[in-house]
Design goal:
The structure is a homodimer.
Chain A: H1 8-27, E1 33-37, E2 44-47, E3 52-55, E4 59-63, H2 67-89, E5 93-94, H3 95-101, H4 113-127, E6 136-137, E7 144-146, E8 149-154, E9 160-164, E10 174-175, E11 185-190, E12 194-198, H5 201-209, H6 212-215, E13 218-222, H7 229-241, E14 246-249, H8 254-264, H9 274-277, E15 283-284, H10 289-294, E16 300-301, H11 304-314, H12 322-334, E17 336-337, H13 350-362
Parallel strand pairs in A: 5-6, 12-13, 12-14, 14-15
Antiparallel strand pairs in A: 1-4, 2-3, 7-10, 7-13, 8-9, 8-11, 16-17
Helix pairs in contact in A: 1-2, 3-4, 11-12
């Protein structure tokens, strides 16, 4: 169980650590510098005990010797101060607002939001905290859940509210907030056999309409494309705390394979917190290249970008299993991709009456 | 009050009308044809009584004399049959599924989803029904609401559920379903002075966190970029049935102006149902070009696409008022655009403490 007990005080202490470190450098007459793990595919390694991919030992250094490095260190201090203020006042801010806030930082002003986003991630790596602990949140909405699971959310006014994600919500389900850590969300109980994480809204709504949650004792979760951190964290917590197996149901193309790998193994951008976000036991149930052949699905030809992405996956350590190698090579060979909604070729019930029972049966889940 | 009382029987009758029309053509030995209004900027006119922009008198004809027209008529018949089956079985389908369903239609198969989407809109125009009456829905999620409004949703199992969009939901709010017609959603009551429709999720969450709904007796609605039809319809219904004024708060760029115009005046693509979707009394409260100057906001330079879009708006009948002309010309002159979150330059409270009170005050709303 990967418990997280990172309190507000821990975050404040860790941020103060950065300032003290820089102060020490200066005090000793040294030029301040900060080292962060290099965030590339070449620098992620499999962490056996945690069962996820995390950063390796390569560090990138930022030294105040150069103007770029000096600016970055200045910005780290400004950002640390801003985060500290938010924590004290129980406020939060979007990453976009954070970028605009820097307008008032003179030389510390960011030149793009990519820069401020990256720095927020660097601060996570250095402090061991998560962006959510900093009260920084992305633009994107969290995703939706429909199923017999009861949670308790502490809302913005501090009021605790029990919500059953099947009985207490409308058909669009329960919206996952950006912060799903324990102080915000408690998972109380679930009466279900597994969680099915679904890439597209169209397929999510199809499973809702077909009553797949009740008929198959499933909790339905909409991944919404490449899932937000809060969505992955919520999946992870349902898996660990409630013992629910997770299966992932996506389109059949290289980008969907990446969605699965970020759910199961962790994303390259967030490998420093894979242990909190990834669900290593998650299983992929399609659409696979084999499905395209076996179910004779409507397809599109692979684009050059698709082919490149598939080839890049062949060298990605997260896809090195026999299973993935075969599926990726088959997709390149047939030169076709398909969408989960293509199953509608056989009617609106085919996915819940035939496809999912067959695929879930093959992995012993139904 | 633009009441809609289009029952299942009305839809079935209207669809049958199309079939009968084609049958009559054939019966008389004529080549069947179908006429639909031309859907371009040049063919929308202002409907004084309804207060919205609707299609003019130009028709585009599809005749079975040519292969293209014949295919389109065949597809119309297939689609009508599919919709009829969904109505009988109380099912629904996404536009994407609808496209894949056509795999089984032999010569009627669509070559792209654009084609099937357009046909669904054509059928709306011909029958006077709405896509929602056909049980066809888009991929995109509806948006979210936070505020003191109570609705009653009839869920997929036919159970009616009262939901207060402030007290009965989590911080992510109430998710608007794709169908918000009366058989699905009833608006029971609201204790608020106005609705503020907000373009970005970041700003929506800002107003939620700052408690703008309670402090200013506002209902907060997230437009989510160019708003879905269900979002516009929900706004319209709050405006008409509960008498709530609507203000629109977006980024300051030509695309955001279009978002406003589709909320207030109707979108070109859906001008045949503007009277159900548009809220003519909606007011724009920014970000304007004047705001960029007056509030000295962080900006980006206009791109070539931005400039083109602004120039195109100068010839758009929906933007012909003095107010819009001045703002569009000023934006072209200063050659700058800005985002609503740029207000964070002055801190996280500036938007709710200063900007919105000033802008709402200027139109007598606060």
């Amino acid at each position: 169980m990967t418990e997280r007990n990172f309190t507000k005080e821990d975050v404040e202490k860790a941020l103060r650590g950065i300032v003290e470190d820089i102060y020490d450098h200066l005090d000793k007459g040294n030029i301040p510098k900060m080292g962060v793990p290099t965030r590339t595919k070449q620098n992620i390694t499999f962490h056996k005990r945690k069962g996820v991919w995390t950063y390796g030992k390569n560090l990138t250094w930022r030294s105040a010797k150069k103007m770029d490095g000096a600016s970055m260190i200045l910005r780290s201090l400004y950002m640390g101060e801003f985060i500290n203020t938010m924590l004290e006042q129980s406020r939060s801010s979007t990453l976009r607002e954070m970028y605009y806030i820097s307008e008032g930082w003179d030389l510390g002003k960011f030149s793009s939001q990519d820069e401020s986003n990256r720095l927020a991630e660097d601060l996570e790596i250095i402090t061991g905290a998560m962006r959510e602990d900093f009260h920084l949140r992305p633009e994107e909405d969290g995703s939706r859940i429909v199923g017999n699971i009861t949670i308790e959310e502490t809302n913005r006014k501090g009021v605790k509210k029990k919500i059953n994600c099947r009985d207490d919500v409308g058909d669009s389900g329960y919206g996952i907030p950006y912060n799903v850590e324990k102080e915000k969300i408690r998972l109380l109980e679930a009466d279900a056999d597994f969680v099915i994480a679904i890439e597209t809204g169209g397929m999510f709504d199809r499973l809702v309409e077909n009553g797949f949650d009740e008929r198959s004792r499933a909790i339905l979760l909409h991944l919404k494309g490449q899932p937000a951190r809060s969505t992955r964290r919520f999946l992870k917590r349902m898996n660990e705390e409630l013992g629910l197996p997770v299966v992932v149901f996506t389109d059949g193309d290289p980008w969907s394979f990446r969605i699965f790998s970020s759910v199961a193994y962790g994303a390259i951008k967030t490998a420093h917190i894979s242990e909190y976000l990834a669900t290593p036991t998650a299983e992929y149930i399609g659409i696979t290249a084999s499905d395209i052949v076996n179910y004779d699905l409507p397809t599109d030809k692979l684009t050059d970008q698709d082919k490149q992405a598939l080839k890049s996956e062949l060298t990605d350590p997260r896809f090195k299993s026999r299973y993935w190698r075969d599926e990726i090579e088959l997709m390149l060979k047939i030169n076709k991709k398909s969408e989960q909604q293509a199953l509608a070729k056989y009617g609106l019930d085919y996915v819940t009456d035939t496809y999912l029972p067959e695929k879930l049966g093959a992995i012993g889940m139904m």
